[in-house]
Amino acid sequence: MDAKWVVELLYWRDVKTSGVVFGASLSLLLSLTLCSIVSVSSYIGLALLSVTICFRIYKGILQAIQKSDEGHPFKLYLDQDVALSEGTVHKYSDCVLARFNTTVTELRRLFLVEDLVDSLKFAVLMWILTYVGALFNGLTLFILGLVGMFSCPIVYEKYKVQIDHYVGMASKQVKDIIATVQSKVPGLTRVKAE
User: Fold this and answer.
1) Where found in the cell (predicted)?
2) Contact 190, 117 (CB under 8 A)
3) Alpha helices in the chain, H assignment, sequence order
4) Which value, to the nearest 10 degrees, does the dihedral of the CA atoms of residues 112, 114, 119, 120 take?
5) CA spacing 20 to 30 A to 161: which of 6, 45, 85, 186?
6) Which residue, among 168, 141, 191, 118, has the nearest Cα to 32 in the 3D structure?
7) pLDDT given at position 1
């Protein structure tokens, strides 16, 4: 799964594939709001197992009636190698480790107030997230994120000029407000490292 495929999926270039992925993901998340993850996993496993067992029995009956010797209907999939190579595991674990180390370093910098302005921004973000957490649980945020991932890119693609115009206006106003606050409150201006 590469980045180009994900972009194609989120921009709905292939409507059928995007619809299936979006529908299946949304169905999974909505079912997790109603049942536990153990129940949902069990139901999905039972559904897949029911389909494969029925297909295997159907093909067995067809082979018996037609007196053919086609073999196991899932032979192609049973012969495929599904094991992960050590190189692949090392590659992805190295990426995860690098991101983890970067995150820990950044959190240390924020919590130990290396830069007052960045730590105050982080504090405001945490304060806002307390309100978000009071309104939504994590699963609801995942659902909203999924719907946003599949709808925002296509909306932005259609209305790019208007959105860029209003985002530019808002960004300028936010920069002006930050500059005003930093000039009026002592200690909030950034100190340039020498």
Assistant:
1) Endoplasmic reticulum membrane
2) yes
3) 3-10, 15-34, 37-66, 75-78, 86-111, 116-135, 138-158, 160-184
4) 120
5) 6
6) 141
7) 60
Q: What pTM was estimated for this model as a whole?
A: 0.62
For the chain, percent of residues with pLDDT exceeding 70: 95
- Measured CA distances, 23 to 18, 32, 40, 159 (Å): 8, 14, 16, 25
Q: Which residues contact 63 (CB under 8 A, 6 or more apart)?
A: 69, 70
Q: How far apart are CA 182 and CA 189, in angstroms?
A: 6
Instruction: Check if the beta carbon of residue 169 is closer than 8 Å to that of residue 175.
Output: no
Closest CA to 73 of 61, 57, 56: 56
pLDDT tens digits, 46-75: 999 999 999 999 988 988 888 888 888 888
Whether the Cβ atoms of residue 26 and residue 146 lie closer than 8 Å to each other: yes
Residue carrying the six token digits 């930050």 = 178
pLDDT of residue 137: 85
CA-nearest of 32, 69, 77 to 52 is: 77
Average pLDDT along the chain: 89
DSSP state letters, 137-166: -HHHHHHHHHHHHHHHHHHHHHSHHHHHHH
